[in-house]
Specification:
By secondary structure, the protein is an alpha/beta fold. It has one domain (9-246). The protein has eight helices and nine strands. The strands form two sheets. A five-stranded mixed β-sheet has the order 1-6-7-9-8, sandwiched between helices. Strands 2-5-4-3 form a four-stranded antiparallel β-sheet, with helices on one face. Helix 1 (9-16) packs across helix 2, helix 2 (27-38) packs parallel to helix 8 and helix 5 (80-88) runs parallel beside helix 7. The longest helix is centred in the middle third of the chain and has 25 residues, at 130-154.
Length: 251
């Protein structure tokens, strides 16, 4: 089991920003430490990854890095089972207007629920009439879906997933992850990393070529998480990216 060329990234980060945790280190300190290790802007590092759900936490990590990718899943709530089901059929008809339910209002912003795939996503769009949203959102959804499937086919990103962090719920195991990995691999040979909460984090293990398990101190238990464990997440991104540069390619 390969723990990577920088299994001590967390230690290096702590030397760069003592003590490195979400409560005591600023976002700027964390970014400076990570950029010194990986040799690229934090924004570019965050863009090397894409979420597979189940919620929005990683999307806000990207935002703190200054990365705002157009993404099908970035601010989407979707279960692992529904993600697999969607991948199996290429999220066919996900943009069917008859299957898109608008939640919210033009003042507070619109969310969209797609019952066919049990998914709900934040649009962050305000000041737009309901009728206009109904007209334009299907095309926006189709574009994001097509881009997501193309990214899977290229296999150039690291796709990230984690458990919905409800207190007391079990950690994801390899057996839980295998069906999702198989669905991803039907498109291409991209890396996949799943996260578990662990006191040993931040640490990334390569269980086999292209399959990573990341250990993080804490995951949030809300669908709309704008206060992630930024330092923990960034240490994992740095570890995973460095592993991909030196590890064997998935078959």
């Amino acid at each position: 089991m390969n723990k990577g060329p920088l299994e001590n990234v967390g230690q290096k980060l702590r030397r760069s920003a003592e003590p490195l945790n979400a409560k005591s280190a600023s976002v700027e300190d964390v970014i400076t430490a990570v950029e010194a290790i990986v040799g690229m802007p934090a924004r570019d590092l965050a863009m090397e990854f894409e979420s597979l759900g189940p919620a929005c936490e990683f999307g806000f990590v990207q935002r703190l890095c200054g990365a705002e990718p157009i993404s099908f899943t970035r601010f989407t709530r979707i279960s692992r089972e529904n993600m697999i089901r969607g991948l199996d059929v290429g999220f066919a008809e996900v943009n069917d207007p008859a299957q898109m339910e608008l939640l919210g209002d033009m003042t507070n912003g619109w969310d969209v629920h797609v019952p066919r795939y049990g998914m709900t996503y934040h649009t962050f769009r305000r000041g737009i009439e309901r009728e206009v949203m109904h007209r334009v959102e299907p095309d926006r959804m189709r574009f994001r879906r097509d881009k997501f499937l193309a990214e899977l086919s290229r296999g150039s990103k690291i796709f990230v997933t984690w458990r919905w962090a409800v207190p007391g719920s079990p950690q994801l195991t390899l057996a839980d992850i295998e069906p999702l990995l198989a669905a991803v691999r039907r498109y291409g040979s991209g890396y996949m990393m799943w996260l578990v909460e662990s006191n040993s984090g931040p640490l990334v293990e390569e269980l086999r070529p292209g399959l990573l398990r990341g250990h993080i101190g804490s995951l949030r238990n809300s669908g709309f998480v704008d206060d992630p464990d930024f330092a923990g997440w960034m240490a994992l991104l740095a570890n995973a990216w460095l592993l991909r540069q030196t590890g064997d390619k998935p078959s």
